[in-house]
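It is worth pausing here to work through a concrete case rather than discussing structure prediction in the abstract. The textbook approach is simple: state the sequence, then state the predicted structure, then interpret. We follow exactly that order.
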Amino acid sequence: MMPKEIIRKKVMELAREATEIAGVELFDVELLGQRGKMIVRVTIDNEQGIGIKDCERVSRQLEALLDVEDPIQGSYTLEVTTPGLDRPLRGISDFERFRGRLARVVTTERIDNQTFFVGRIKSVKGDIIVLELDNKEVEIPYKIVSKARLEIEF
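Step two, the predicted structure:
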């Protein structure tokens, strides 16, 4: 039996190949549950957004690759999904990409006596994220961001 991390790396390789063929980006691969009841969740993304057809294409392509390579012992369920409207922001490039959007940011160090911010991404200056909160701007060094995600706006 292979450890979960080795299986995840192999599935990640295959998912990368499937997403390249489908013309979308691989965002993440998660293995949930136990052997025999495992859920393989592949998250895909694209600048233009992801539709159901994209998920279907990646799913079909990845199923074929998984059948040939067979890295997972026992049965599993394959899920191909998107990061969602409240997607995590996982790098400085995500903050640049979603400039103007509302974000929730948690920091490891206090800024103005707080570690939790909800504001609009105004800009990125090198490795500093500028959030606009109500009537003020807060500069947050990316190195102290512990979690960040977009907020759903209606």
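Step three, interpretation. The first helix runs from residue 4 to 22. The chain has two domains: 4-81, 92-150.
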